[in-house]
Specification:
Elements lengths: L9 H10 L14 H10 L4 H16 L14 H10 L6 E7 L5 E7 L8 E10 L2 E5 L3 E2 L17 E2 L2 H15 L22 E4 L9 H11 L12 E5 L6 H8 L2 E5 L5 H7 L8 H9 L10 E7 L7 H10 L5 E7 L13 H13 L30 H10 L7
Helix pairs in contact: 2-3, 5-6, 10-11
The structure holds S-adenosyl-L-homocysteine and iron/sulfur cluster (SF4).
The site of S-adenosyl-L-homocysteine (SAH) has 17 residues, from strand 8 and strand 10.
């Protein structure tokens, strides 16, 4: 890693400028990799010999201790803390709203700067507590360029990609709100052991298509899994894609996290309608990419998500097709009961149909958990983000909840 920097060098300048928000505000240190942080230190005249040491200290404060205020960084002199806070930002995103569901699911509406002229943007982040673990569902974009016909996010145009810092900011704020960081004020404040964490898993399954924001998602996930910082195991991070084939191999090779594919149909004609990116990357290309996913094995299976749409993709013929299609691929199947939103043209399959579908694929050797719809009362379930109030009939919900096994991530 180069530690000697010439700040008159246009390359160095432009690297830092790239990190400067378009509205001219202070760049965030959250989301910079170590090399960028070294450049950041150089830009405020930290002597060359100290830069890497300072970066390690700041990394620890940000990601192990979870501080969002330079004044708490005790092993950094007041003078340097002053210079850091003049030049850089480490504050959390603004919480516009926090909602807690009857089942413990939490949803935060977070605000970020517009990224240029215009209004600030908002994204949602959802926390799903489960027996022995807790999963954070993180957004990668504001809106989405794709238009999957059953997804509410798909009706919202892409506003912009989130930066690496904004993607990580969602994890940091959730850990802070849930008490996953040690108390920075006590010198002996114990570091929360990884087994006891509230956020044990993360899934890139919020708003947006993560593989259309590859570089930022990659940088955020590499920081989230860094052993000297947030230390989340890559086996506990799942990235879900609608099928951006050219970036699937890169995800395994360059990020190394678990992969989930939003499959939803087993024939090209139907998938073209439900997940229109299929017209560009049809099923055969998508499944080839899965077969060649770096690191795929029976111990590291790919999750195939399948939303259950009444009368559309939920017949036993479809179940047979699914088993056929996935032959030879180490796979898990996640059945997602469709979550309705106002104006959607689909209905969720009947419970009996979901059960028969699940039994068929189970009998053919696939673990096929049905994903419990969580947080429906606060509209935090898959595909409902940003939609208005809509409730399942209570009898349906009770029936589903009694029988479902949750299936997010590892
Ligand atoms: N854009 C990425 C990740 C976000 S969506 C992707 O498509 O994979 C997370 C999952 O929720 C996807 O499998 C998506 O297809 C599914 N989903 C979207 N809308 C839904 C809805 N209304 N009900 C149930 N699942 C939905
Ligand atoms: Fe975008 Fe995923 Fe929704 Fe499709 S399912 S519109 S890719 S967020």
């Amino acid at each position: 890693m180069p530690v000697s920097l010439d700040l008159t060098d246009p390359q160095t300048r432009s690297n830092l400028d790239k990190l400067r928000p378009a509205d001219g505000s202070r760049p965030s240190l959250v989301g910079m990799d170590r090399a960028q942080m070294v450049e950041a230190m150089a830009s405020i005249d930290v002597p060359e010999k100290q830069r890497r040491m300072r970066v390690s200290q700041i990394w620890h404060w940000l990601y192990v201790r979870g501080v969002s205020d330079f004044s708490l960084m005790r092993n950094i002199s007041a003078d340097l803390r002053g210079r850091l806070s003049e030049a850089f930002d480490i504050s959390r995103p603004k919480i516009v709203e926090e909602q807690i569901s009857d089942d413990g699911t939490r949803k935060w509406l977070l605000q970020f700067p517009s990224g240029g002229a215009g209004k600030p943007v908002e994204v949602e982040t959802v926390y799903i507590p489960e027996e022995g673990r807790g999963t954070l569902c993180i957004s990668s974009q504001v809106g989405c360029t794709l238009t999957c016909s059953f997804c509410h996010t798909g009706t919202q145009k892409l506003v912009r990609n989130l930066t690496a810092g904004e993607i990580l900011g969602q994890l940091l704020i959730a850990r802070e709100r849930l008490g996953d960081f040690p108390n920075a004020d006590t010198p002996q404040g114990a570091i929360v052991p990884s087994e006891g964490r509230k956020v044990s898993n993360i899934v890139m399954m919020g708003m947006g298509e993560p593989l259309y924001n590859f570089d930022h998602v990659k940088q955020a996930l590499l920081i989230a899994s860094d052993g000297d910082g947030l230390s989340l195991s890559k086996r506990r991070i799942t990235l879900s894609t609608s099928g951006v084939v050219p970036n699937i191999y890169r995800t395994g090779e360059e990020i190394g996290v678990m992969l989930a594919i939003s499959l939803h149909a087993v024939r090209d004609d139907l998938r073209d309608e439900l997940v229109p990116i299929n017209k560009k990357y049809p099923l055969s290309d998508l499944l080839d990419a899965c077969r060649n996913y770096p690191g795929v094995s029976n111990a590291k299976r790919i999750t195939f998500e399948y939303v259950m749409l009444k009368g559309v993709n939920d017949s036993l013929e479809d179940a047979k097709g699914l088993v056929q299609l996935l032959k030879g691929i180490p796979a898990k199947i996640n059945l997602i009961p469709f979550n309705p939103w106002p104006g959607s043209n689909f209905e969720c399959s009947d419970w009996k149909q979901i059960k028969e579908f699940a039994e068929f694929i189970n009998a053919n050797g696939y673990a096929s958990p049905i994903r419990t719809p969580r947080g429906r009362d606060i509209l935090a379930a898959c595909g409902q983000l940003k939609s208005e109030s809509e409730r399942l009939k209570k009898s349906d919900r009770l029936a589903l909840e009694a029988m479902m096994i949750a299936g997010h991530g590892e």
